[in-house]
Write a structure and sequence with these properties.
This protein is of the alpha+beta class. The protein has a single domain, classed as Bifunctional nuclease domain (Roll), CATH 3.10.690. It is 21% helix and 40% strand. It is built from four helices and ten strands; from the N terminus they run E-E-E-H-E-E-E-H-H-E-E-E-H-E. Strands 1, 2, 3, 4, 5, 6, 7, 8, 9 and 10 form a ten-stranded mixed beta sheet that branches. A hairpin with a 5-residue loop joins strand 4 and strand 5. Helix 2 packs parallel to helix 4. The chain is globular and about 55 Å long. The N terminus is likely disordered.
Length: 193
């Protein structure tokens, strides 16, 4: 795992632009095993976050689009954290709000951090594999009353079993299983030309 960090270990985070105390910690995901962290004050974060995240790769189908996690923003002063998806073979992206525990769990996994006992997404994956299944993909399928819904698609012998899960769990499990993450195309905003 390659982690690029602008501050010395155990030092208080300072803004990489102006030197003020950092309140936002932006983790740009360069690949599923390389994370670059930038510490920013709230003023400098606005400019930085308007820049696009990771670039494109390839798409799955017309009704669902493959995405990757391109950025995670950890905010010291708000309970909401933001995970950014970027279309694999295109320009569109989607910010996704989640809690601090879910965001840090995904971030730790991307950074290659090991735990002494399995975390929830690791236990899910171990269970699936132990009973002979394989995570084929995860998908964020719909938005109902401002809440995203997702499913894991598990290949089990000759069929695909769909399991309703929280989107953050679907993302974490797919990342751990190195499986594609899909989003229903209509949930991604169109990019202005």
């Amino acid at each position: 795992m390659q982690i690029k960090n602008g501050n010395p270990p155990n030092a208080p985070a300072i803004c990489g632009n102006c030197g003020d105390p950092a309140r936002l910690h932006v983790y740009d995901i360069e690949s599923r095993n390389s994370v670059k962290v930038t510490h920013l004050c709230e003023k400098c974060a606005k400019d930085y976050l308007s820049k696009p995240g990771a670039g494109p790769r390839r798409a799955m189908s017309s009704s669902e689009v493959e995405v990757d996690v391109c950025r995670i923003v950890i905010n010291d002063v708000a309970p909401e954290q933001i995970l950014y998806f970027r279309e694999v073979d295109g320009e569109r992206g989607l910010p996704f709000v989640l809690g601090i525990y879910e965001a840090t769990s995904i971030l730790r996994m991307l950074e290659g951090e090991r735990t002494s006992r399995p975390l929830t997404h690791e236990a899910w994956l171990l269970t699936i594999e132990t009973i002979g299944g394989k995570v084929a993909e995860s998908a964020i399928t719909r938005l109902v009353d401002r809440t995203y819904h997702a499913e894991l698609r598990i290949a089990n012998q000759s069929e695909i079993v769909r399991v309703d899960v929280r989107p953050s769990d679907a993302v974490a499990i797919a990342l751990k299983a190195n499986a594609p993450i899909l989003i229903k195309a209509e949930l991604l905003p169109e990019v202005a030309s």
